[in-house]
Amino acid sequence: MRGKRTASTLVAAVLFCLCAAAAAAPQKEGTAAVTWQRDKVPVFIDCDPGIDDTFALALAKKSPALQVLGIGAVQGNVGLGRTGANALSIASYIGLGCPVALGATYPLQGVPMGAAYAHGSDGMGGVALPTPDRTFDRRPAWKLLYDTAKACGGQLQVIAIGPLTNIAKALELYPDLKDMLAGITVMGGSPTGLGNMTPSAEFNAFNDPWAMEAVLESGVDITVIGYDVTSQAVVQGDELEAMIGDSRIPLLLNGMRRTFVGEESDSKILNDVLAVMALTDPQVLTIEQGSLRCLTGRADRGTTVLTDDGSPVRYAVGLDREKMLDVLRRMCADYQK
């Protein structure tokens, strides 16, 4: 690893202090609904943490343009037992006071397909966060999403950075939901056919292509940030080293970097941050419009294709990496305050 400081030492020291404080704090049962501040864009984040999900949640928390009103967890990078626990721990740790709810354990069809090879068996690269200050919301993620959308009067934006099972279930169970959403930004698919599960299929789409297709065809205003663009969201080790400081967020960043970069590689692709930046910093991305379908056959599972007969969506075709890095630098600087 090219980093000059010892990440494991920093992780151990910070964890000792924070775990002691967390142990003394009472744990709340769930979290009451957060009052929407009307000068911010209300968002619901559906995720499967996951390393890049963690960066995305941290970025959303620090954005002056967004207010996170709810978080749903779905199986994906690892099983729901871990992604749910991770989402709750991250939200508590970085100060997101919104409800966190558990969602789907399985895709709409078949069995889960995890990515522990990329995120570790716990999804967090072995980084242990303090005990959360609250428990899960009692509602399933799709009901929390529906209730949050209803309270926002058509203004809610969904940022979906895991498999789309929770979102598809919500749209099926509550047919009026599609008229309550201002939009859904999806990290998933790959309109030009660059995959990371098969040569043409991206992980989230491959995990639950039936959910991906249902969301694409829902009639909601959809923006797709596909792997063909997010694969360019590479942060080098020395760039990350220059961003971090002695604050809360480096416990996550340093610990994950210690696990996943250094000896084998000195870089990480942060796919999910681009779904947040699509709302907060749209100049980072180049967007076009077209029709997109997600295929569900045995041979073409999870492949997303541009077509003439699908619902119109916006999709990313380019990334300004330097602008992306500027946004991440500002985020890390904010966590040092």
Percent of sequence in beta strands: 15-25%
- CATH class equals Alpha Beta
The domain count comes to 1
Strand order of the largest sheet: 3-2-1-4-5-6-11-9-10
CATH architecture: Alpha-Beta Complex
CATH topology: Inosine-uridine Nucleoside N-ribohydrolase, Chain A
Structural class: alpha/beta
User: What's the story with the biggest beta sheet?
Assistant: 9 strands, mixed
Number of strands: 11
Overall 3D shape: globular
The Cα radius of gyration reads: 19 Å
Order of helices and strands: HEHEHEHHEHEHHEHEHHEHEEEH
Q: What's the pLDDT, averaged over the residues? A: 85
* Corresponding CATH superfamily: Ribonucleoside hydrolase-like
Domain Inosine/uridine-preferring nucleoside hydrolase: 43-325
GO biological process, one term: purine nucleoside catabolic process
Signal peptide: 1-24
GO molecular function, one term: purine nucleosidase activity
Please provide a written account of the structure.
This is Nucleoside hydrolase. The chain has one domain (7-334): Ribonucleoside hydrolase-like (Inosine-uridine Nucleoside N-ribohydrolase, Chain A, Alpha-Beta Complex). Strand 4, helix 6 and strand 5 form a beta-alpha-beta unit. Helix 1 crosses helix 11 (248-260) and helix 2 (51-62) packs parallel to helix 12. The strands form two sheets. A nine-stranded mixed sheet has the order 3-2-1-4-5-6-11-9-10, sandwiched between helices. It is globular. It is an alpha/beta fold. The chain has helices spanning 7-24, 51-62, 80-94, 116-119, 141-151, 165-173, 203-207, 209-216, 227-230, 237-243, 248-260, 273-280, 321-334, and strands at 41-47, 66-73, 100-102, 156-160, 181-187, 222-225, 234-236, 267-269, 285-294, 304-307, 312-319. Helices cover 38% and strands 18% of the residues.
